[in-house]
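Model the whole thing, not chain by chain.
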Amino acid sequence: MRIAGLIVKRLFYAAALVLAVLVLNFLLIQLAPGDPADFIAGQMGGVTQEILESIRKDYGLDRPLLEQLWIYLKRAATGDLGYSYYFNSPVVTLVVSRIPATILLILSATVIALVLGTWMGVMAARRPESWFSSLLTVFALVGYSAPAFWTGMMLIILLASVIPIFPVSGMYDITLKTGPLGHAVDVAHHLVLPSLTLGIIYIAQYARLSRASMLEVLSADYVRTARAKGLSERVVVFKHALRNAILPVITVTGLHFGHLLSGAVLVESVFNWPGLGTLAYDSILRRDYTTILGLLFFASLMVVAANLVTDLCYRLADPRIKSSRG
Amino acid sequence: MQAKSRTAIVLAAAVGGAMMLASAAPALAQTPKRGGTLVIGYHDTPPHLNPGVQSGLALQFPGSQLFASPLTMDDKWQPKPYLAESWQSSADGLSLTLKLRKDAKFHDGKPITSADVAFSIEVIKKTHPFKPMFGPVTSVETPDAHTAVIRFSAPHPAALVALSTPALCPIMPKHVYGDILKDLAAARKHPANRAPVGSGPFKLVEFKPGEHVIFERFDGFFLKGKPYLDRVIIKYNKDPNSLALGLERGDIHLRPYDNHARILKRLGAKPHLVLTKKGHEGAGPLAWLAFNLKHPILKDKRVRHAIAMAIDKDFIIKKLHSGYSTRAYGPLAIGSPFEDKSPQKFDLDLAKANKMLDEAGHKRGADGTRFKIRLDTLLSQRDVAEYLKPQLKKVGIDVELRIPPDLPTWMRWVGGHEFDMTMDVVFTWGDPVIGVHRTYLTSNIRKGLIWSNTQSYSNAEADKLMAAGSKEMDAAKRKAIYLQFQKRITDDMPVHFMYSPPYHLIYNKKVQNPPLTVWGIIAPLHEVWLKD
């Protein structure tokens, strides 16, 4: 019951947040000089005044700003996020068609980062003075400092050009004619470099975080008690210590969802991954306002949902929260 | 004597060998092979695939595979039959009769008739940005299903160029588009634009904007036995380096309109790739420095000439573009049949430039500066703009660079005439009427419209020459008119022509009969085949 109440409360906050995001983004975009009609005219190689006016009228760009905002909000409330100026398609259709690719990329990167990062952190915490621990510190520093687009390009050069074992870009090979299994393998093959690029930053962070957390937990009384009971080191570390040590990692993972989404814009652009990131990049360059707004709307929904899920996971992982109010 | 006879033997052997080689040549020519998938890499995704309602290379080259035009053009600017078997201009130049093939049909199996030609020309006239293409068309008569008579208000020699590529004149199925003409906006948003029913050599399988377009051979294509390829795939990737890597690895067979000098240099060294400038003559790109003639300093022709002579075009071409761009001198693109072969050149001459600026009354101040001026640039020409700043400083001109964050911003500045000087790249589209006049006609000074006469250039003689050139049906007389026009424009210098951008077509040696006509990639690919 408490969880249901929490969800309702969070959903209410989320609706207010999403509305604020819509209004703010709509107004901010209008501050930029030039409008989509200019861009369409440019793409057409210049147009007559008549065509330019017909474009502005067609997309409602000739109306006062507040009227445009009101119309947009009314339509958004009914699930209509407008029509893409550039892609000639309803924004909802466009965005929904790109969500699976981005979710796949983000989840793969998150899984890679969580599993590898946590494992590395635990290993380093078990022997804090070892060479592995020092190596982890260096890796964490480099992984966190290197921009995703640079890491991506380096991986392309190394693993798609010098040692050409992975594809340069895209999500699958359209020249291949295979069945569903072959297609899944092909997608997985294409997914390696982008998910690794996006994941590296977070591997470094999670490794450092779990290392610090594990160091603290491993010196706790209950761990000493567990060892004194004669439990194996594996059980002590992975069953007793890690469950507590992973709590900060779970919290940060939820918070990172928004960052992952923005990181995906860069990584998708580098690898031409057909997700929300490349759509955002294309739309920003083309002043495709309705698509940009639609993307921001969906992105805010996804971030809110991810935070809600994190809250729930946190409660499941930590019985103290489950039994307390909050 | 022995020496003489030896020479005679050698000569006889050489002649004999040459004759044998010549006779063997046809046998050596390879027979086109059917099948295979041609993969094209391109950097820009199109909004849809119908070039009849919108311009832009990104949609013109896929559109040219889906649609057919009445004619095509070879690499010597000669029109060739395509959908039309023959064409005949009337003696007074006021009509053009097209005789269509009787066996041509659309991808949905419906026959192509003269009504489709009339419909398409009307749609293009009303919706396409290149108004002069069919501006003088008063009507298209359809005396029978396979004859279309295009009537003009005045002789219109540019019509043949306009009809010579599906990129400019795709014949659209009237039965699919229906009453599209009732609403201009509806024409651009018609669902058939994203899934066109054309009559070109390939039909659409899938279009995923930003990802790819897949075409497959249209077995009912009106040129029997063609196209040779089973499929054509266009892969989109904004990153030119990834496209280059695709060419190196063999994932991509053909890459049109690459203009990155470093990439061209890198790919030029690959033995399995060919780089060529051919195939860009029709689109005719020109890079120039445009002047706002309303500017109190720039309205003086001597200042413009001085600026032109202060710029080292050879440096731009050889150093900035590694020799991949080509020097341009006038308003007509390199390779145009009207091109002035003995143009007025504004080569680097700093002493003369300084003298002219002195004479124009712009003496150097204490700090050596004569005046300050703003230079805008497209992002793609930023390197040239950055070179111009220190270069013009040498003649005392202090250049303030204004780099726009994106294209719409630059378009707003220049289209709104809110600029002093700007770098620009403009396409000239085959005939001067279609893509050249727009920059210089007094009647085309339209604030708010990009790629109109944004320089505010106005010259009665130039206007008269353009009016005469647009109506002159005699090729020799027309050429003479445009020679005069080029000399007028080059000297008046509303823009300073600098170079033709380093656009290259890059293709794998497996690609046979690559698209090298004047329209290059924006022509149908029915002759292309892949060698094993």
